[in-house]
């Protein structure tokens, strides 16, 4: 029961929104985040580790100026949550197709110089990831059971393919970042109705 109290939300809410449902393949990198294998072969992620990483990543993001944080999502279900998260914390969002050279070619209109990159899926956001590596940027990524972590500096284990999973992860990240800044409180963001209102928009 003590574990339940320490979580940002009830573990059932993580499970209801499929945050812990991984893929049928797992990478060696992700072994430490996997709790068990379901009967249908899906690898289940540990929600306690997901919850802990959301807290630590929110704290780390707050060491950066908000406009210097770049959030990307090529994956369709991640685009709206990523954009809403970026708007909530004042970060820069690039959703949909990532224009090659956006982090490396100053002559492009899309060129930006962030201090840190946040990817929704290291596989789907590979172009941004490669450019960030070449630019020496630290990289945070939402990673599923099948992702490899070679170029991800800080991993947030979660289902990065599901609509409601991504909505919930980005909701909690935004809430924690704003709480640390003192710009919101648990009462403003933590009610189940607030959470349902956010999730119902996806």
Terminal CA distance reads 31 Å
Query: Taking Cα atoms only, what radius of gyration do you get, to the nearest Å?
Result: 16 Å
SS-derived structural category: alpha/beta
Choose one word for the global shape: globular
What is the N-to-C succession of helices and strands?
HHEEHEHEEHEEHHH
What's the CATH topology name?
Rossmann fold
Q: Taking strands numbered 1, 2, ... along the chain, how are they ordered across the largest sheet?
A: 4-3-5-6-7
Provide the low-confidence segments as ranges: none
From the coordinates shown, what is the CATH architecture?
Answer: 3-Layer(aba) Sandwich
Keywords:
five-stranded parallel β-sheet, 8 helices, 7 strands, 202 residues, alpha/beta, Rossmann fold
Q: How are the secondary structure elements laid out?
A:
Layout: H1 2-6, H2 11-16, E1 34-37, E2 43-45, H3 47-61, E3 69-73, H4 76-89, E4 92-95, E5 116-119, H5 126-134, E6 139-143, E7 154-157, H6 163-181, H7 186-189, H8 192-200
Parallel strand pairs: 3-4, 3-5, 5-6, 6-7
Antiparallel strand pairs: 1-2
């Amino acid at each position: 029961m003590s574990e339940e109290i320490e979580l940002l939300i009830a573990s059932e809410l993580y499970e209801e929104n499929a945050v812990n449902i991984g893929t049928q393949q797992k990478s060696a990198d992700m072994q430490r985040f996997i709790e068990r294998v379901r009967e249908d072969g899906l690898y289940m992620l540990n929600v306690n580790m997901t919850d802990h990483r959301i807290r630590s990543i929110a704290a780390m993001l707050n060491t950066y100026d908000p406009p210097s944080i770049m959030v990307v999502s090529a994956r369709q279900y991640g685009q709206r949550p990523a954009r809403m998260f970026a708007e909530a914390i004042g970060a820069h969002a690039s959703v949909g197709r990532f224009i090659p050279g956006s982090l490396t070619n100053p002559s492009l209109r899309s060129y930006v110089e962030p201090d840190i990159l946040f990817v929704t899926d290291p596989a789907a956001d590979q172009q941004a990831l490669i450019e960030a590596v070449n630019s020496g940027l630290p990289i945070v990524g939402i990673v599923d059971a099948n992702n490899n972590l070679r170029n991800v500096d800080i991993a947030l284990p979660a289902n990065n393919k599901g609509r409601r999973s991504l909505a919930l992860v980005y909701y909690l990240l935004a809430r924690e970042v704003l709480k640390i800044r003192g710009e919101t409180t648990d009462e403003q963001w933590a009610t189940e109705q607030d959470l349902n209102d956010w999730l119902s928009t996806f």
